[in-house]
Amino acid sequence: MGIAEFFQHLMNGLTLGGIYALIALGYTMVYGILKFINFAHGDILMAGAYVGLFVFDGLRGDAPLGTWTLIAFFLAMLISMGFSAVLGMTIERVAYKPLRGANRLAPLLSAIGVSFILSNSAAWAFGTHSRKFNYPFDNTPVHIGEVVITPHQILILSVSLIMMIILKLFVDKTRMGKAMRATSLDQGTAMLMGINVNRVISMTFAIGSALAAVGGILIALDFKVYATMGTMTGLKAFVAAVVGGIGNISGAMFGGILLGLLETFGVAIFGIPTGLKDTIAFGVLILILLIKPEGLFGKVEKEKV
Amino acid sequence: MKELLTIDDISVSYGNIKALKQVSMHVNEGDVVCLIGANGSGKSTLLKSIMGQEPLDSGSITFDGEEICRAKNAGAKQGKRSKILTTDLIAAKGISLVPEGRRVFADMTVEENLDMGAFLVRDDALIAERKESMYDFFPILGARRRQKTRSLSGGEQQMMAIARALMSGPRLILLDEPGLGLAPLVIADIFEKIALINQQDKVTVFLVEQNARMALRASSEGYVMENGRIVLSDASSTLLENERVREAYLGE
């Protein structure tokens, strides 16, 4: 593999990984606090993509590609983030919160139920065909030496990077971000500090769902919008979160990027047939679970005395 | 003297096991009050009940004249709706608990832990000022402010837990076994600090300890708990001379 080819795959892997990372964050943040996997997360991504698509098309009208389409795209993204945040909080309030004291399986099953409700409702309301999410800009590839980069890839890289930096700053530096970390470390003690844990949980769902909406829109530009689009992507982002160490925010970012790179290079270097590309994620999952069950960044959880 | 905390006839149970049986006691403003008793006698349960972390079967708890906890069914007969404050709201009233086993946020730095203690304080300047005074009061914490709390020794973590509890500027601080698992010299140091917190900062202290001698010497009023019941209460100096206490708790 030549240098140019390497960079080509690197670029492709990073963009794919950036999207996985954005989505993985939602799984990991929720798990960090509730020790629960939100299996409806992938469908929130789908809902976010639909909202983004409709708002973008509505705002754009017949306008030709240009500054306005870009503005419309980012407006659509913001509105979709807001919509998904509310959707995520509502799902938590209605389907998970009442089950918080119950058997650990109960919220899990509830999440799977919500997942089906969302994807079936979308199929019923918007049809089973897939819709094209038009690029808000001219996506003609740019050649840098022998490496081909599309403006879409630059968009994915910059948006996911900015989102991750904002999230990291929020969690590390702000009062509510620190309260979120404290709640995930020790919920009972967080309450002693005067932290309203219910509010922290709502906020966690809001942030995770907003990030999923961004991931959904970014991936929709390449792979279209359809009712079950969240299933496989969501599952792989979940794998990324587990690989990075579920509950760990940096781990989810790292796991997402790693998975993106592995999929791209797996096909390129090891000649894994493209049709088997999806097996890479799950192969890696099994491998990591065997070697380091707590994930790359995860800590072994000690039983509380 | 004004009663700051009043515990009125409370009972708490875990399933079929009665952890607290009709416990009544009070803490006067400005005092250091201790509760001694053996392991498993119900001391920690009492502190958790005050913070709203254990539902009451009966009775009520009043802080500064306001009822903060009440048994679910109590008052129902009089047509009152049951009012149970959640832990975060009780903390907001001005009660801080230093929990048993310290429960520091181990993955956060000392400074971040103190920030969490000040979660309810919205004034950044005041938070900074309080942090500085904590670093003066516990110099070792100042030296380690950027370290993850897990790297601190047990005694340092205990000091941090106390400092964290003080960050909210509480009127009442509840201490659950502050001497647990620490070396005698460290315990002496911590009790010295507790006395200063009471005298200088005018914080009322309610202390739960297995180490009866330390606790009685540090306090003005004492209660003795056995099997979830208060069996003795008196001035701490009197309890130190009490035969039953000497035999059962002071090993004399």
From TrEMBL, chain A:
Pfam families: BPD_transp_2. One of its GO terms (molecular function) is L-valine transmembrane transporter activity. Keywords: Amino-acid transport, Cell inner membrane, Cell membrane, Membrane, Transmembrane, Transmembrane helix, Transport. Its main location: membrane. The keyword Transmembrane applies. GO terms for biological process: D-alanine transmembrane transport; L-alanine transport; L-isoleucine import across plasma membrane. CDD domains: TM_PBP1_LivH_like. Belongs to the binding-protein-dependent transport system permease family. LivHM subfamily. This is Branched-chain amino acid ABC transporter permease.
Automatic annotation (TrEMBL), chain B:
GO terms for biological process: L-amino acid transport. Pfam families: ABC_tran. Keywords: Amino-acid transport, ATP-binding, Nucleotide-binding, Transport. InterPro entries: AAA+_ATPase, ABC_transporter-like_ATP-bd, ABC_transporter-like_CS, BCAA_Transport_ATP-bd_LivF, P-loop_NTPase. Residues 5-252 form the ABC transporter domain. GO terms for molecular function: ATP binding; ATP hydrolysis activity; branched-chain amino acid transmembrane transporter activity. PROSITE patterns: ABC_TRANSPORTER_1, ABC_TRANSPORTER_2. Belongs to the ABC transporter superfamily. This is ABC transporter ATP-binding protein. It comes from Sphaerochaeta halotolerans.
